[in-house]
Amino acid sequence: MRIAVSNSSPLINLSIINRFHLLYSFDIIHIPPAVWNEVVVHGEGLPGCDEVRDGVTQGKIIVSPLSNPDSIKRFRQTLHLGEAEAITLGVEIRPDVIILDEHAARDEAIHLGLHVVGVIGILAEAKKTGQILSLKDELDNLRTDGGFRIHPALYAYILNQMGEG
Fold first, then answer.
1. CB–CB of 71/112 below 8 Å?
2. CA distances in angstroms from 123 to 8, 41, 66, 118, 164, listed in the order given
3. Is the pLDDT of residue 165 over 80?
4. Which sequence spans correspond to the domains of the chain?
5. What is the distance, to the nearest Å, from the Cα of residue 84 to the centroid of all Cα atoms in its chain?
6. In Å, what is the CA distance from 99 to each residue of 29, 90, 103, 133, 160?
7. I need a surface site. Which of 28, 29, 41, 81 has the fewest CB within 10 A?
8. pTM for this one?
């Protein structure tokens, strides 16, 4: 069984490009309460809201409270609440993957020994497994439709690695 923990932005960005379903390559996706609040409560009517709500209804996404909510304090100086809670939840349950896109959050999670993947990694895996035809098209949609920033060197590198360079 493959288990993931996710922050808000990957959920939102995959929804924007109509690729939310790619997350279901994981058996269970845990999200902390702050992510639920950001995407569903405060994000009512925005990308990701319906998909996350449906995922919870289907049992594919679980809103998992933190065992020790005070433990997020160490991350709050540099990270947003959702990132801090996602990393804390990741440390608590040790998933196969934590899905984060923001650089500071990724660095912190890696420092804590978590295996990190982001939207680009989810899309690259989907390309490898034939779930999408063109990684370049998906990355371009992510950049255009979602305003997702990808460093030009990373963009070129990942496309080259996937045989689209």
1. no
2. 17, 27, 29, 9, 13
3. no
4. 3-120, 130-161
5. 13
6. 10, 10, 12, 22, 23
7. 41
8. 0.95
Q: Read off the amino acid at residue 114.
A: L
User: 41 burial class (0-12, 13-18, 19+ CB within 10 angstroms)?
Assistant: exposed
Res 79: pLDDT: 94
* Burial of 27 (C-beta count, 10 Å sphere; 0-12/13-18/19+): exposed
> 58, 73, 11: which is closest to 38 by C-alpha?
11
Q: For the residues 9-14, what does the mean pLDDT come to?
A: 98
Contacts of 105 (CB under 8 A, 6+ apart): 7, 79, 80, 83, 86, 87
Strands 28-31 vs 97-99: parallel, antiparallel or unpaired = unpaired
Residue 77 has pLDDT above 90, yes or no: no
CATH number of 3-120: 3.40.50.1010
How many Cα atoms sit within 13 Å of 8 on the Cβ side? 21
When pLDDT is cut at 50, 70 and 90, the band that residue 39 belongs to is very high
The answer to whether residue 73 scores a pLDDT higher than 90 is no
